Amino acid sequence: MDKHRCNCCGQPATKECSGCGLEVYCGVECQKEAWPAHSDICDKEVQTVDARFGRRSQRSIPTYLESTREFRPFYDALERNGLLPLVTGRTKVTVFAPTKAAMSNFKNNESLNPLDRPLESILKYHIVPGEYTKKDLREGTQLPTEEGSDVPVSYNAKTGAIMVGYGGAEVTRTDIKVKNGIIHRIDQVLVPRGTT
Length: 196
Known about the structure:
- The protein contains 5 helices and 11 strands, in the order ββαββααβααββββββ.
- It has 2 domains: 1-45, no CATH class; 50-186, Roll (FAS1 domain), CATH 2.30.180.
- A 7-stranded mixed beta sheet has the order 6-5-11-10-9-8-7. A two-stranded antiparallel sheet has the order 1-2.
- It is globular, with a radius of gyration of 16 Å.
- It is α+β, with helices and mostly antiparallel strands.
- Strand 9 (162-164) and strand 10 (169-178) form a beta hairpin.
């Protein structure tokens, strides 16, 4: 779990939920703090074992995003912009999900969207058709997004962290495996290059 971050505070995680194994924490204090919100979904968590990906939640991407405090603002933005159908259904997708702090920072900082791109376009740039695990996120990879342009993958030479997008968003948790795809947590909102 060395590359994972606590779902509560964002620090490096050393523990995972013993019930579902899908939530990770830096310690007991954060796990206790997150438990009231997590308990509702943890007790209902049903998992299957997938031959390629291992343990996988039976929650869908929208259900996982909506029920996880860290991703709720991203879920709300997808819902407001009518984009939930892109992450719902039988088609497998990979979602680079910005944290609550990343969404707040983006909303409050106009310089992060210098070309004033429509929010719908920016949100589509976080959705990649197909499933891409951490192993697939290799230096130089270009992943095609629902927005129409590719999101680049690179590595931070100093930390070894996986980076995505042109602004250097760090993937702070990889391979959240759910029923219809994979979610990777990122610390910034991704903004595609070019003009609208």
